[in-house]
Design brief:
By secondary structure, the protein is mainly alpha-helical. It has helices at about 1-80, 95-100, and strands at about 85, 90. It has one domain (about 1-100). The chain is rod-shaped, with a radius of gyration of 40 Å.
Length: about 100
């Protein structure tokens, strides 16, 4: 046990130097580098998210407009007179005859 303690005491100064040189001095610079990398990643994520959201909104908007116009067209066709029965009970589908 005594030889192990003696060797650890001898190595203590060298280990302290190594710890100070490799870990403590780099903490601030490592934190700064990591913070910058995190900010870049967040900016890319935000840009990607807004681009995907915009494309989704454009597609949804287009689909909604198509549906709206199809509903309007369907209702206008329902209200239009496409056939007309005359006094002799004949059906007329010609738009020129119906317009008279």
């Amino acid at each position: 046990m005594l030889p192990v303690v003696r060797k650890l005491k001898i190595m203590k100064y060298g280990l302290n130097e190594l710890n100070n040189r490799e870990f403590r001095s780099n903490i601030v610079s490592n934190c700064q580098e990591d913070r910058e990398a995190m900010m870049k990643a967040q900016q890319l994520l935000q840009n990607l998210s807004s681009t995907e959201e915009q494309s989704y909104m454009d597609k949804t908007y287009d689909d909604n407009i198509k549906y709206l116009f199809s509903v309007i067209k369907h209702r206008s066709l329902q209200q239009a007179t496409n056939q007309l029965k005359d006094d002799s009970r004949n059906w007329h589908t010609d738009p020129e005859l119906i317009g008279k």
